[in-house]
Write a structure and sequence with these properties.
CATH topology of the largest domain in chain B: Aspartate Aminotransferase, domain 2
Strand content of chain A: 15-25%
Strand order of the largest sheet of chain B: 2-8-7-6-5-3-4
Largest interface: A-B, 20 and 30 residues
CATH class of the largest domain in chain B: Alpha Beta
Helix content of chain A: 25-40%
Number of helices of chain A: 5
Shape of chain B: globular
CATH architecture of the largest domain in chain B: 3-Layer(aba) Sandwich
Order of helices and strands of chain A: HHHEHEEHEEE
CATH superfamily of the largest domain in chain B: Type I PLP-dependent aspartate aminotransferase-like (Major domain)
Largest sheet of chain A: 4 strands, antiparallel
Number of domains of chain B: 2
Distance between the termini of chain B: 51 Å
CATH class of the largest domain in chain A: Alpha Beta
Helix content of chain B: 40-55%
Structural class of chain A: alpha+beta
Number of strands of chain B: 12
Number of helices of chain B: 13
Structural class of chain B: alpha/beta
Order of helices and strands of chain B: HHEHHEHEHEHEHEEEHHHEHEEEH
Number of strands of chain A: 6
Oligomer: heterodimer
Shape of chain A: extended
Distance between the termini of chain A: 31 Å
Radius of gyration of chain A: 21 Å
CATH superfamily of the largest domain in chain A: Lrp/AsnC effector binding domain/regulation of amino acid metabolism (RAM) domain
Strand content of chain B: 5-15%
Low-confidence stretches of chain A: none
Strand order of the largest sheet of chain A: 2-3-1-4
Chain lengths: 162, 379
């Protein structure tokens, strides 16, 4: 594994790991790790660091929805043009071009169901190339970014074993 | 009721006392665990569940399901270029431990000498004694990174032994041996006509070089029994599934005992094992990467806190020198004062004297906390 991949491996698991800790885990030194991280950030490989949150434990729980979008393209407009236009809205948390029955899969977040609905009907649906939207409100979350939202399993191993 | 003499002659495991001490305490972080902290990959667990749903709850053939044996033989051919006939040269066992016990009972006559490379997994010596054999310890040394050499073998008098048993990557030291390093061991075994029992249960967890099986070396396949299994690589310890690979006469003898005592390895586990071989290599690689990171973390922290430790390169153990004269006392004090459990090296034979087995099969947060506590304890 290259040291770049090794550093990324630690960061993807725990973005808050200190340079010292990353260095220990990757058999490197903190200066090298910091240089690699600077390089990853400058090259846009690492775009940000975010906490993975169990929203059930928040006082105000924003409403999330996954929205299917169908579009028609013309000579002047491609997928990228439409995507850029939609992605700029802060309510849009992720946007993917996907295969299958629809074109884009969009994840939206706002304060209330009314806000999400208004956003879809006022901002997204009127985009001329968008021919159809199907909104799925998120009712419960079981796993976020690879982390399960349940209580987790206890370590039931014997405390000392051969 | 009076136990038989040969059982009385074997003392209880030295690990047991620490288990009991640790069990009485709260907030223990254990670095004394000899098994993965991961659960088996979901695909393997799912295959086990499916087999139960379909009512696959009967015995299998004594030797194990033929599809599983074929898959294991194929894996050995792909990975090591070693051909074993799944019909006659392969036995599926209830964990590698059963296989090792079968080999002792099937290949050791009363009075035969079994050279046991130490520090060693706790089961070899009792296994030899239960089989009526004599144990010849072959100590390895920290300054040689706990590798086995022909010099150590000769020094211990292993040339006169009948059987040689060792385990690389090693429990408890974390030592590994390259193919080159195994050459002189193989030469010694050929020269002195030793049967070799090679416990390769940690084969998937070698961090600095590819694991080499001694059976791949010239003239070794015909005198070697290889033990491997699913416990460590696939985090399936509780499913109890291992296998032994050897020439037909050894497998036939081992199966003779197995068919009367175990009948067959757990059926549910065999279904899980087949799935593990066919779809869980990615999960194994991911776990190995995690162990490797923890290994680096542990070795770096030991160095920083001045705890002398050779560069362990396999399994999920480090084997630092104990800063106190008595490793047992140290481990007890560490546990009582900091709640961190480690195992004194003497639990793995006299050659473990002055050392501690530290398992890094623990999540990185707990591991970090435990290392912080050890550091404060040493300060």
């Amino acid at each position: 594994m290259s040291s770049r991949d090794a550093v990324l491996g630690v960061l993807r698991e725990n973005a808050r790991a200190s340079s010292e800790d990353i260095a220990r885990q990757t058999d490197s030194d903190p200066e090298t790790v910091e240089a690699i991280i600077d390089e990853l950030e400058a090259a846009g490989v690492v775009r940000g660091y975010q906490a993975v949150i169990d929203r059930d434990q928040l006082e105000s729980q924003p409403v999330r929805a996954t929205v299917e979008l169908n579009v028609t393209l013309d000579r002047e407009t491609g997928y990228d043009d439409i995507a850029e236009r939609i992605a700029r809205f802060p309510q849009v948390k992720s946007l993917y071009l996907v295969s299958g029955d629809f074109d884009f899969m969009m994840e939206v977040e706002d304060e209330s169901m009314r806000d999400v609905s208004a956003f879809i009907s006022d901002k997204v649906a009127p985009v001329p190339e968008i021919t159809q939207t199907v909104t799925h409100y998120v009712m419960d979350s079981y796993k976020e970014q690879g982390i399960e939202m349940g209580d987790g399993d206890e370590d039931d191993r014997l405390s000392v074993s051969p | 009721m009076k136990p038989a003499d040969r059982v009385d002659a074997v003392p209880p495991s030295g690990i047991r006392r620490f288990f009991e001490l640790a069990a009485e305490m709260d907030d223990v972080i254990s670095l004394g665990v000899g098994e993965p902290d991961f659960a088996a990959p979901w695909a393997a667990r799912d295959a086990a569940i499916t087999s139960l749903e379909r009512g696959r709850t009967s015995y299998t053939m004594n030797r194990g399901r033929s599809d599983l044996r074929a898959a294991i033989a194929e894996r050995m051919a792909d990975r090591y270029d070693l051909e074993y006939d799944p019909e006659t040269e392969l036995l599926v066992t209830a964990g590698a431990s059963e296989g090792i016990d079968l080999a002792f009972r099937a290949l050791v006559d009363p009075g035969d000498t079994v050279a046991v490379v130490q520090p060693s997994y706790v089961s070899y010596v009792p296994g030899v004694l239960f089989a009526g054999g004599e144990v010849l310890p072959v100590p390895t040394r920290e300054e040689e990174a706990f590798k086995l050499t022909s010099e150590r073998l000769a020094e211990a008098g292993a040339g006169d032994a009948d059987v040689l048993v060792f385990c690389y990557p090693n429990n408890p030291t974390g030592a590994t041996m390259t193919g080159d390093e195994l050459q002189e061991v193989a030469a010694f075994a050929r020269e002195h006509d030793l049967t070799v029992l090679s416990d390769e249960i940690y084969a998937a967890l070698s961090y600095e070089h590819e694991h080499t099986s001694i059976a791949t070396l010239p003239g070794m396949r015909e005198r070697t029994v290889v033990f491997n299994g699913f416990s460590k690589a696939y985090a399936m310890t509780g499913l109890r599934l291992g296998y032994a690979l050897a020439p037909p006469e050894a497998i036939t003898a081992m199966n003779r005992i197995h068919q009367y005592t175990m009948l067959s390895a757990p059926t549910t586990a065999q279904h899980a094992g087949l799935e593990a071989l066919s779809s869980c290599d990615g999960a194994v690689a991911e776990m190995r990467d995690q162990y490797d990171r923890r290994r680096n973390l542990v070795l770096s922290r030991f160095e920083e806190m001045g705890l002398d430790c050779f560069r362990a390169s396999g399994a999920f153990y480090a084997f630092p020198s104990c800063p106190w004269d008595d490793a047992g006392e140290f481990a007890e004090a560490l546990l009582e004062e900091t709640g961190v459990a480690v195992v004194p090296g003497t639990a793995f034979g006299d050659a473990g004297e002055g050392h501690l087995r530290v398992s890094y099969a623990t999540g990185i947060d707990d591991l970090t906390e435990a290392l912080d506590r050890v550091e404060r304890f040493l300060a």
